[in-house]
Amino acid sequence: MGSAGKSDTYDGKGKRLYIVTYGCQMNDRDSEALAGLFLDRGYEMTEIVESADVILINTCSVRDHAENRAISFAGSLKEIARHKDTRHTSHEERTTPIKPIIGLIGCMARNRGEDIFQKMPHIDLIVGPAHLDKIPDFVDEIRNPKHEIRKRIIQIEDEERSEALYHPLFRVEPGHAQIVISTGCSNWCSYCVVPHVRGPLRLRTPQDIIEEVKRNVDAGIKKVTLLGQNVNDYEYTSHVTGHTTHVVNFVDLLKEIDKIDGVEELSFITNNPKNTSKELFEVMAHSPKIVKHLHMPFQSGSNRILELMNRGYTREKYLQLAEEYKKITGGTLGTDVIVGFPNEAEKDFLQTEDLMRRVRFKCAFIFKYSPRPGTKAAGMPDDVTEVEKKRRHAVLLEMQKKISKENYTG
Ligand code: SF4
After folding, report:
1. Distance 72 CA to ligand 1 centre (A)
2. Residue 62 CB less than 6 A away from ligand 1
3. What per-residue confidence (pLDDT) applies to 150?
4. Cβ atoms < 10 Å from Cβ of 5
């Protein structure tokens, strides 16, 4: 980890950064990458929010629970902001502002940023997922004592990310590199907010991905996890000469990374069943490095509900894939399930229960449906009562506990 910083930036030496992250593995990786950028400027990490000079809240919009927690935490920082806001009390404090810089970043910045900017004046910085690499510069700009009035910054446009975000080598789990291969998603599952807040599918080049893996391996990393909202969507087309094109799909990419000396354990997440292939299972089976576990969310066991969800596969296809996967790799499966989706009748739920009973997942993340503003499903009647959602959730949870105990313990 370097500590130089650029000559036109403030030295972060002695300054402390606190980051709280809500949501998925992709968000964890974004926070880690961002922390790396600050550490490279001389900052230190702190776990004590009151002692931080910069506080960042990396938000998630996938479920309302995560949004509510982030908003509540952001609100609770008002006190810290007020007590330390001494900028206008003396010349010394004007030139050395001590109020922490507070930023709300990630998905919620993108879909609710303008509203939060208006309603929470103690938040200095609102930055969407496309601009995370610029946050250290924004912090410098806010800290710049030449501004008589403390500046506030909002940057939430959706665009391609800069590769600069992926340059630092800082890793939260020593020896384990999570590598983003794509951002956004263009699948438009009807309940999902990701295409709205993270934008359309955008691919990093195979060269950039492979170089990042090699940089990490050179730094002693042995374990690599590739991240994408749906890794199977990876299909990078490059134009070799005039009319000749070269396509690298996810299986090709996986094979290339598998060949890198020094990578000893390789995994990836997530695989949408609609374009998960037998070829992938074969590559997994033949590589001693690839972990034999596949996270393949089925979401519902009812074809009628899968169609309303716009998932692009049937229960029959899912069951067939699960069987082929187990036969070819001998591995385990994980999944995500939603109960109480609009229109989900008891007979639909029973099919979900049946699918879980047949596949016997090693792990299952079971969620009660809640509408996300702006999605297609939010326009459908949320007609399964909260009591019924809770019941269905409890039934599946109990079943999964039993399956895990019978099949995967001891
Ligand atoms: S595949 Fe569907 S559920 Fe997954 S991120 Fe894309 S739109 Fe959302």
Report:
1. 26
2. no
3. 83
4. 18
pLDDT at 243: 78
Handedness of CA 239, 245, 246, 250 (dihedral sign): positive
Instruction: Give me the helices (H) in 45-106, please.
Output: 64-76, 78-84, 91-95
Give CA–CA dist 167/207, Å, rounded.
14
- What pLDDT was estimated at residue 7? 37
d(CA 29, ligand 1 centre) in Å: 18
CB of 63 sitting under 6 A from ligand 1: no
- 0.90 cut: is pTM over it? yes
Ligand 1 contact, 73 CB (< 6 A): no
Alpha-carbon gap, residue 264 to 32, rounded angstroms: 22
Q: What is the end-to-end Cα distance of the chain in Å, rounded?
A: 40
CA distance 374 to 364: 27
pLDDT of 240 reads 76
Low-confidence ranges of the chain (pLDDT < 50): 1-8, 85-97
3-class secondary structure, 236: strand
Instruction: Output the CA 152–ligand 1 centroid distance in Å.
Output: 33
Domains of the chain: 16-155 (3.40.50.12160), 163-408 (3.80.30.20)
Q: What residues are paired with 344 via a beta bridge? A: none
> Ligand 1: distance of its center to the CA of 184 in Å?
9
CA 56 – CA 106 distance, rounded (Å): 10
- What pLDDT is attached to residue 239? 79
